[in-house]
Write a structure and sequence with these properties.
Number of domains: 2
Bound molecules: 3-hydroxy-3-methylglutaryl-coenzyme A
Largest sheet: 8 strands, parallel
Structural class: alpha/beta
CATH architecture of the largest domain: Alpha-Beta Barrel
């Protein structure tokens, strides 16, 4: 916990990832008895939600979703008010076949306005393909876990940092903003030391912030991305808000997981995150009622039920939209 807390102060533009070990929630468990005003006093008034469902969600669902459905989903998400949607990844189609239609998705969303569409690029090849497809910002994704790095991108942490360094340099030449994910832990490897996380996060920070000052304004926020494997994701989000983090990743209907982290469940359901944030009186600009139609739409296509408790609960009540 202290490692995470310190990181949030030092590394403002590194996205930290945790496979739901519940550390933050446990730490803050003792704080819930404090008066509610004290709990909320540092929480920012506006929370930016990054909807990762079309990428992180669909990469790990059972069925391959047709491109047209993905594009309609992305359009529905943008119309619901999300400022940032991760549409896809420029990774090997052999490794992630569910996203093999990357180029077609990018072509089809080119004219959708109102949101930013960062795409994942694991190497220079992916970066170049992303730029050729019209991507305006990219995401690199390193890991603090050696075994996750090998399973996910088939190389060691050190090699991945070299590879991402090349992407960062290429991006700087084109003034393309680079966001970074730093995966904190991996179920099969267990706890990763805070110093190891700090090392990888600092390397990434140096790569995209200090050597990349022109685009600094778009990467100056620490964000969190929680899976809900142990049911701790909302607690972790609340605890993150409490230390001033105001950007949260989530996936509609709790879709997805990571193809290379066996046992990791889907991301926290966006509907549940929005419901909690609304309840706290925080603004997100997301129209929950409209957005729930997107969840319904994609779940029908996937032939699965929603992983959002909010969706399940609200489907049983008939509260007016203004009360959601
Ligand atoms: C990184 C590689 C490509 C290395 O894969 P590799 O097999 O080591 O690469 P290689 O250089 O030996 O190339 C093998 C083949 O892939 C091709 N290739 C090489 N690079 C690319 C590329 N960019 N795009 C398309 N094709 C590519 C390359 O051209 C070649 O094609 P072939 O000659 O066999 O026909 C592979 O391991 C890979 O694609 N991994 C997928 C990683 C991934 O997408 N994981 C899921 C996302 S991470 C995640 O979900 C976690 C996160 C971020 O959400 C945080 C969280 O949830 O906690």
């Amino acid at each position: 916990m202290f490692g995470f807390h310190n990181l949030s102060r030092q590394m403002r533009n590194v996205l930290l990832y945790e496979y739901d070990k519940g550390t933050l929630a446990r730490f803050y468990g003792g704080i819930f008895s404090l008066p509610i005003l004290q709990l909320l006093k540092d929480i920012p008034g506006f929370v930016k939600i990054v909807e990762v469902g079309p990428r992180d969600g669909l990469q790990n669902e059972k069925h391959i979703v047709p491109t047209a459905v993905k594009v309609q989903l992305i359009q529905m998400l943008v119309s619901s008010g999300f400022p940032i949607v991760e549409p896809t990844s420029f990774v090997s189609p052999k490794w992630v076949p569910k996203l093999a239609d990357t180029k077609d998705v990018m072509d089809a969303i080119r004219n959708i306005e109102g949101a930013r569409f960062p795409v994942l690029t694991p190497n220079l090849k992916g970066f170049e393909a992303a730029i050729a497809s019209g991507a305006k910002e990219v995401v690199i994704f390193a890991s603090a876990s050696e075994s996750f790095s090998k399973s996910n991108i088939n190389c060691s942490i050190e090699d991945s940092l070299v590879c991402y360094g090349e992407v960062a340099i290429a991006a700087r030449k084109l003034l393309i903003p680079v966001h970074t994910y730093c995966v904190l832990c991996f179920p099969v490897e267990g706890k990763i030391s805070p110093s190891q996380v700090a090392y990888v996060a600092k390397e990434l920070y140096d790569m995209v912030a200090q050597k990349f000052l022109l685009c600094h304004s778009t990467t100056d926020t620490l964000a969190v991305h929680f899976h809900d494997t142990y049911g701790q994701a909302l607690s972790n989000i609340l605890a993150s808000l409490q230390i001033g983090i105001s950007t949260v990743d989530s996936s509609l209907s709790g879709l997805g997981g990571c193809p290379y982290a066996k046992g990791a469940s889907g991301n926290v359901a966006t509907e549940d995150a929005v419901y909690m944030l609304n309840g706290l009186g925080l603004k997100t600009h997301v129209d929950l009622k409209k957005f729930m139609l997107a969840g319904d739409f994609i779940c029908k296509h996937l032939g699965r039920s929603s992983g959002s408790k909010t969706t399940v609960a609200l489907s049983k009540v008939t509260a007016p939209a203004s009360k959601l």
